[in-house]
Amino acid sequence: MSPTRTGVLDGLSEIDAANVVRCARVLLRRPLLRAAGPDGDLLPLVYRHRLALADLFAQTLGYRLVVQRQFARLYKAMPAGDLPRGESSLSPRGYTYLALTIAALSGVGRQVLLSRLVADVRSAGVEAGLAITDDLADRRAIAAALRHLLALGVLHETEGSVSGLLGETTTEALITIDTDLLGQLLVGPLAEATDGADLVELATRPGPRGTEHAVRRRLVEDPVVLYADLPPEQADWLRRRARRESGLLESCFGLITETRAEGIAITDPEDYLTDLVFPGASTVSRVALLALPELLAGAERGARPDGRVPIEPATLRAVCARLVEDYPAAWSKQATEDLTDLGAAVLDLLTAMGLAVFTAEDGWLLSPAAHRWLPEPDERPARELPQLPPQPQPEPGWSLFDHEDAAVQDDTAVRDDTALPDDTAAHDDTDTTLEAGA
Fold this sequence. Notes:
Elements: H1 3-7, H2 14-29, E1 32-34, H3 43-48, H4 50-60, E2 64-67, E3 71-75, H5 92-105, E4 111-113, H6 114-127, H7 136-152, E5 155-159, E6 174-177, H8 179-182, H9 196-203, H10 211-221, E7 224-226, H11 232-253, E8 256-259, E9 263-267, H12 283-295, E10 309-311, H13 313-326, H14 333-336, H15 339-352, E11 356-359, E12 363-366, H16 400-437
Helix pairs in contact: 2-4, 5-6, 5-7, 10-11, 12-13, 12-15, 13-15
């Protein structure tokens, strides 16, 4: 039995152990957990089990956990060169302004006017040697950085809105800063860093247990970990302890592992820790899924020691074109208008899922983990459907309305023929009566 299980969860009751695992999963998903944010209702439970959680993360992953009544911060350290996927709302320029905004906020106190904050951010950019402009694209990048800090709860719009940056003239706003959360944002120790590169290096340094923490962090953070992607000492360590690590990850974090000859795939049965679901419902996701069997068909011909399969972008485009042609009604028209863009989007998705990687020497390579998906379309391709003979066109003839018109005319004629004698008879009777009366 691992020391982690004995030292942390085994000393708790079954209910408390389940709650610790639940809180640990929430903190992995939301490293900055606050009362007013998503899953904030679990913060009291995190605070109650803060000692067990701090012990769990320190022993298993070498992560530091800070828990207060208003927030909890898990300091996750990613392996160097293996940065996580970024926020979709932030462009590279937006990330630049996010860093500059954090730097500018450190010296403004608890409240600041939007115009003053933007001026300080731009001044910090000039000081860092960046080209700063005042065009719409630049203002959008600043606004995106500010909105990200608003979502984290670091900033609050007391009066006005940061959207005022996007008008022809900047609309003033009063911004309130949560200085407690601001001080918890950065993972790396600012006091120890000499420059930006040193800060990143300090933030990605391995845990106290070296190889053990480094490998386990990869298993928790990456959906696929191949032995070929690890340094030799880490790969050897994981091969020896694969079964033991599988039990530890399941008991501590609710993760299920699949051990193969090439490496380990990690899944979350509840999909809570999965920030990118595959396969998904989008056109790009479904095209990527259906393209895998054909792309992997050359696995035996292009076999590599690490199990990866080389693919050519031109081949992927051809497969995408065939899928679009075979199932024309299944896809979004906008997503399939440009097959080159569609192929690039498929590669981006597979890369984000850890199923594809690009190397300068070998180009694009598919992970052996892609073999676990062998989908079959629900419908037959359009080119294989039987071609029905054209239906004969009906010959022109009388219509129902023509018949009704004729019937109405005949009926009118009948009424005219029978009404006149009756009417004449009535007049005759009247005349007879009058004569008799006379």
